[in-house]
Amino acid sequence: MAITRRQKDVLDFIREFVERCGYSPSFEEIARGLELNSLATVHKHISNLEKKGLLQRGHNRSRSIDILPEQSRSVTPEIPLLGRIAAGRPVEASEMRETLSLSDLVDNKPVFALQVRGESMRDDHIMSGDYVLIEKTAAARQGEIVVALVDGFETTLKRYYLEGEMVRLQPANQEMEPIYAPASNVAIQGRVLAILRKFH
């Protein structure tokens, strides 16, 4: 879990305060203890630590900052995001000081991953061996790429179209035919949020 030096200072201060006093510090005590001039800065650090799964706040009680135990923390590795790169004409190189984590892609939604087998979605650039991040949901809009359970035992990754009382599960491969099934026989299990591809 990548955190900034200042976030680590905040986390260490809260941990030491709780060990010493038996309860969590207020925002004012954190600001004083770390010589921060703004409560908004404290709030920003606390919010970021909460998003990273290191802290938890109870919003209906005072002194409600709790450090989560290791096993409760959601691990979302962060990768340095160094800039943008052109896939057409070259652009000027410029270094950015940002990070990218899976939480940026999934936005705290309930998510699971599946590895793709087969070529039915290749024209949507989803290839065999890719990993798809799926938002767990039972609803989908027309044309979304979904994980669909058909007849209670077959799952497939296709574009979803509701056509009257029938569902068309459309592959993105001109060599393959769509799957048609009564809407009552199709259960949406999730929709695609992102694709991950490993080249080596």
Describe this structure as you would to a colleague.
- The protein has two domains: 5-72, Arc Repressor Mutant, subunit A (Orthogonal Bundle), CATH 1.10.10.10; 111-196, Ribbon (Umud Fragment, subunit A), CATH 2.10.109.
- Helices cover 22% and strands 30% of the residues.
- The chain is built from four helices and eleven strands; from the N terminus they run αααββββαβββββββ.
- The protein has helices at residues 5-21, 27-34, 39-51, 102-106, and strands at residues 55-57, 65-67, 78-81, 98-101, 111-115, 131-136, 145-150, 154-163, 166-170, 179-182, 186-196.
- Strands 5-6-11-7-8-9-10 form a seven-stranded antiparallel beta sheet, with no helix packed on it. A two-stranded antiparallel sheet has the order 1-2. Strands 3-4 form a two-stranded antiparallel sheet.
- Strand 9 and strand 10 (179-182) form a beta hairpin.
- The longest helix is centred in the N-terminal third of the chain and has 17 residues, at 5-21.
- The chain starts with a helix and ends with a strand.
- Mean pLDDT is 81; it is low at 71-75.
Brief descriptors of the model:
single chain; 200 residues; Arc Repressor Mutant, subunit A; Umud Fragment, subunit A; 7-stranded antiparallel sheet; two-stranded antiparallel sheet; 4 helices; elongated
